[in-house]
Design a protein that fits this description.
The chain is an alpha/beta fold and 606 residues long. It is built from 18 helices and 24 strands. Strand 15 (289-294), helix 9 (297-313) and strand 16 form a beta-alpha-beta unit. It is globular, with a radius of gyration of 26 Å. It binds 2-deoxy-2-amino glucitol-6-phosphate. 2-deoxy-2-amino glucitol-6-phosphate binds next to helix 9.
Length: 606
Amino acid sequence: MCGITGAVGLKDISNVLFEGITNLEYRGYDSCGVALMNRTGIIIKKNVGGVKDVYQKENVLRHSTKLGIAHTRWATHGQVTRDNTHPFVSCDKSFAVIHNGIISNHSELKAGLQREGHQFVSATDTEVIPHLLEKFYRKTSDVEASFMETLKLLEGTFALAFITRHEPDQIYCAKRESPLLLGIGDEVKFIGSDFNAFIDQTKNAVIIDDEEYAILSRNGYTVKNFVTREEVDKPITRIEWDSETSKKGGYPHYMLKEIYEQPQTVINAMEVEEKSIDRLVGLIQKSKSAHLVGVGTTYYVTLYANYIFSSLAGQYLPAISSDEFVSLSPVDKHSFVLAVSQSGETYDTLSALKHARSRGAKTGAIVNVMGSSMARLVDCPILQGSGPEICVISTKAALAQMILLTRTALKLGLKNNHLSRKGYNEHIRSLKSLPEIIEGVLNERSGFIHRIAHSHRNVKNWLYLGRGVYYPVALESALKMKEVAYVHAEGMPCGFLKHGTLAMIDSDIYSIVFIPPNSEKVLYEGTLASVSEIRARSGYVLGIHFDERTRDKNLFSEELILPPVAPVIAPLIQMVIAQLFAYFTATSLKRNVDKPRSLAKSVTVG
Ligand code: AGP
């Protein structure tokens, strides 16, 4: 999943192009490249490394231009080398192409083009596109017609764009599955993989749908369907977010900023209209079976909801990882499938939703990015309102999703008489108290967490343990440690230990255990029993719990005591603690926190 952008303007666009591709860097940062139009033709500047490095190495900004495209790469096909860096050009250098997605039939297309004498320089799937454009242009001398012939041959997913010296004032782009938008400014027109490509310049966006292409010039743009070739009238979508919220705001990393934004994130999630929650509850109640889907962090969010719906609504909603959904897929026209996604563009979750729709199921999605593919695909989109989440590591978005799913479970519990009005109001009050509690914990405990994380920065193996609803919190917390600190970490239900994993316990395996408030007696005692099992084998345990009496039991190697809170919010506070722990471990290990290696913010390929 790469980031693509382009700009054409009445004035020099070099700086806004640089800004745009920099803002998209969280989509992939293996290598970067630009194609700039000037009087003599197309200038290509590209190399391995992040946007800033490549712009310096290639001295890109010494070139002024009124039209250009840029790409930042997350490698899927071909090593991370200069040759495999976008843009790619045709043999006669008249076409330059950038692409996000996967051309699944690239091998056959390449073989055919090579037989016709085209020379390839890369191992990527994308490079077939400029050669196809060149092939058809030789036949038609018509850029748009060449583009249509090329699109007819491409299989797979793409958001792609090209410039050509045959029409030096236009940018062409097209979409199938991978996200693509236009940014409509007065003096400059943009293309981008998402809003961040042009949010500093214009709030007017045009969202491109599948099988559509657009032609941009400094005076305007047209959008057509590349199957019917008919013009499509597209509305302007106004972007709510302001560019400041997508800046670091004085924090060293977006991850820390977004962790500290969580009190406001919870307030925003609690302010999502009640009627949206009621719509979700209605769809769940009407369905014969309701399923939750997500992947990575959002799968763990759905697993968390699986427990919450059981305890608060007395209803079992299975959570299925969207990359496995199609294989399992117990859905039909009586089903409701609720997806969870920060970006709203994740390929696996989109495929799960499309599969469910093909079976006649009703669909819903809790998403953070307005206008995203998922928000436009499902019957019931819920915008979670967490603001831009730039760090690849999801923190605040996950918490907001858990809040919204908890509100939905509470309402369902009330409607199906599993929960009394009194119980419902109490839980809502607890949720509303969460922002202040998180603020307090972040301010009062972060020093301690920093010290512990730093002192254990060289620990190679962590076991994250929890019972019941604390198990998905353990899974999500282990994922944070893996993806930001690159440290091996495994999330596991406490009860699982004695069925095998306990054999692994020795001085090299460190455990973090999420202990519920002791008002949850069964879970509390069961969890402490697991702590004893580990301690009996001299294993290290960091216990995270809520009251002094637990401390007196002298069970832990080290412990973090949190202020006593209501059970419905206790797991969420512990998750925030674990986010900080992973963050401080990563900074102690000098990791690239906001752009961890080999990852990207939204995974738009299968
Ligand atoms: C989380 O920190 C990861 N970036 C990843 O697991 C992510 O949650 C997953 O790719 C789903 O992304 P989405 O929420 O945008 O759909």
